[in-house]
Amino acid sequence: MSTHAKRERLLFADLLETSGPDAPTLCEGWTTRDLAAHVVVRERRPDAAGGILIKQLASRLDRVMAEFAAKPYEELIQLVRTGPPRFSPFSLKQIDEASNTIEFYVHAEDIRRARPDWSPRELDHVFQDALWSRLERTGRLMGRGSPTGLVLRRPDGRTVVARRGAPVVTVTGEPAELLLFLYGRQQVADVEMEGDKEAVTKLHESKQLGI
Fold it and tell me: How close are the terminal C-alpha atoms of the chain, in Å?
């Protein structure tokens, strides 16, 4: 596992452990146990994980997730910590870094920001730049569900057009916060939104963002 992905994985596992199995998360209807099961199935059961994106496989995914969620919580945490088996695509360093850095960052925040006393993490500029690079490459894919035109802007002025169209809303924040925004965590993302008032409200409340 590569540097960013490994760090975020271990932080996520630590949060699972300290929170316990029944803590709330930002994933609607999911406790920490459910979130742990989701991550383990994603890495270890590709035959079921396709249900995350493919509607026809959703029932199989639900069944396999329930099986994993029924395991002892400590066992689930250990499966998260040890990472994917050797046959999993996620065991490849390039795929691990490209997919799991974001996966574990977002899900760690799903636990942290479900708490009443949360505050944003202070992230180093290297990590922020790594997340920005992902936004530059995949912003248009991630922003395709936006109900308005959408521009992402860093505090230094660099921008990514996530969706063309009018009216346009410009969302300004650090890359990590913009990433959370695009993943449907608008209610907790530390960003500023500029644009037509109605469009800003529509985007802020949209259920179409997120992958």
Answer: 23
